[in-house]
Amino acid sequence: MKIHDLIIIGAGPVGLYAAYYAGMRGLSVQILENFDEVGGQPYHLYPEKKIFDIAGIPEIKGSQLRENLLAQLELVSYDLACGVQVLKVERREDLFEISTSVETYLAKSLLVTTGNGLLKPRLLQVEGEVVARESGLLSYFVKNIEDYRDKKVAIFGGGDSALDWSLMLEGVASEVHLIHRRNEFRAIENTVAQLENSKIQLHTPYVISALVENQIILKKIKADDEPFDLNVDKILVFHGFMTENNQIVESLDLSRTGKIRTGVAMRTNLTGIYAAGDACDYEGKLPLISVGFGEAAIAINDIAKNIDFGHKIRNGHSSSLFAEKQ
Ligand SMILES: Cc1cc2nc3c(=O)[nH]c(=O)nc-3n(C[C@H](O)[C@H](O)[C@H](O)COP(=O)(O)OP(=O)(O)OC[C@H]3O[C@@H](n4cnc5c(N)ncnc54)[C@H](O)[C@@H]3O)c2cc1C
């Protein structure tokens, strides 16, 4: 089994930047991410919202930030495993053994960048949802747009993701039905205008009352109209995400808010384990991307300086030294 210098748990903006920084210092890095896609909160919770408080970037959308971080990461070598939930971390002499939902990993040091914890999609909360999900009828993400070609698709939601995917699938699917509990959509104006000029069939204000195999039964909110049935081949649910705090390392010191307490140089109470970004807490902590980026750089530099990896680590004073070696 490959032993990495560093394993980063969580591929939100802070984990991705930390991986780049570690690669730049010459560490071998493995990133583990629970979701099938990296990007953390900006990508999953507010892809279309603009961020205005990152140094040197006047404005950037959540989804674009992820693209930029991935482009930067391509400058170094790294290993990335998505769809892998870290369950437990244990010390094995001078290594850490990381047990996940898929396999076990070994590393000499660890950086926890799990944010507010596991991001979980909000469910439709209708009987039959689990069976529909397991059979592939219902999903909370589009993994491959081709799965929707010439299919009759029902999309639930009223925000950016629901509208963006409705518009994107309009030219792919045979029919797109957009179902939302309100008459107004929460997406940006331009997208709502595109929706109004599209062939997407709108069902508002409707909610689902039953799901029987591939038949969804919709009922109008606050009206006595008869419910109506829709037979579909695919159902997509974009009702947003919840976070679930998950403690993966026993005996880590936690703050009152359940975050990992960090001290000097983002060290935790356990030697070799560091935390950065929304996952960590200390006096004066701010849960902001720019702050998390700074914490990542501090943590990686401390790891590079204090852990014996048995190979040469690049100088950390100036990134131009790294560029000359490229
Ligand atoms: C609506 C909204 C707007 C915001 N606007 C701004 C803004 O304008 N400016 C700003 O600076 N900040 C903003 N923030 C805050 C910002 O998004 C967070 O500070 C930032 O995302 C923290 O990054 P992170 O990488 O630490 O954590 P996250 O982005 O939360 O990423 C953590 C990652 O870890 C993964 N993970 C968790 N547990 C596990 C596990 N056990 N195994 C494997 N993977 C795991 C998660 O799936 C996730 O991908 C906003 C937040 C919200 C909700």
Walk me through this protein's architecture:
With 326 residues, the protein is α/β, with parallel strands linked by helices. It folds into two domains: 3-119 and 242-325, FAD/NAD(P)-binding domain (3-Layer(bba) Sandwich); 123-239, 3-Layer(bba) Sandwich (FAD/NAD(P)-binding domain). The protein is 25% helix and 29% strand. The strands form six sheets. Strands 1, 2, 5, 6, 7, 8 and 20 form a seven-stranded mixed sheet that branches. Helix 1 (13-24) runs parallel beside helix 3 (62-73), helix 1 runs parallel beside helix 7 (289-306) and helix 5 (160-170) packs parallel to helix 6. The longest helix has 18 residues, at 289-306. Flavin-adenine dinucleotide binds next to helix 1, strand 2, helix 2, strand 9 and helix 7.
